[in-house]
Predict the 3D structure of the following.
Amino acid sequence: MTSDGNASEAAPESFRDRLVAEIPNLRAFAVSLSGSIQNADDLVQDTLLKAWGHADSFTEGTSIRAWLFTILRNTYYSLYRKRGREVQDTDGVYSERVGVAPAQDGAIDLADFRTALAKLPEEQREVLIMVGASGLSYEETAEICGVAVGTVKSRVNRARTRLAELLGIAGASDIGPDRNSMAVLHKGGFVT
Amino acid sequence: MMHQDDTSNNGQNDAEGRIGEVTLDPKVQEALGRSLKAHYEDLIKAPIPDKFLVLLAELEAKEQRHDK
């Protein structure tokens, strides 16, 4: 992870600078949510426009990332979900990188992981990304999703369990560099 | 953050009292956590498309014109 958007308040940055700094995180969240680079970039653009137009609804001192994720997520569920996964990512950022992702120290292959991640229910996938990767707290995630913290924890647990099932790694002995049973899935990258 | 609640997922004394949820091996959890970060960081590394920078520059310029 790069910088933590929650903490760094060193220099007086313009609102624009702060939005720019969050774009990589917004894209990563949008791709994870929508499963498509193209939808993700449309989603990020809408999010930036809305954020700019409603800048006064941002509370200074709170996490701008959480605020932007809220906008992005609401936009996704109200406008994009139906388009959703019709457009599959076959030529986006993912596929370019899928082939070169190294499976180091017995780690799960990135392409395998993405295939499994894409199969999770949205409500599980979004919290897993927010809590496990984007640096948001359980509390922030709960607020973004409009649910209780306990619900977030429960969804994260179920997401992990489901991922382990999909990846065939129910136990530690299943993790290893020789696992190639899912090689057949490599080609598709992050698709449903 | 990833780590703050890891212990509560390990089992018996889940803070939410959700007994019956499957407990994953900690090593499996770690592997999943690493994969999740690898997935995300790979996306974060991608350069920011110019169109976003242009868009924000235009919005700011428009606002400054209005302010005058």
In short: Chain B has one domain: 6-67. The longest helix of chain B spans residues 26-44. The CA atoms of residues 25 and 31 of chain B lie 10 Å apart. Chain B has two helices and no strands.
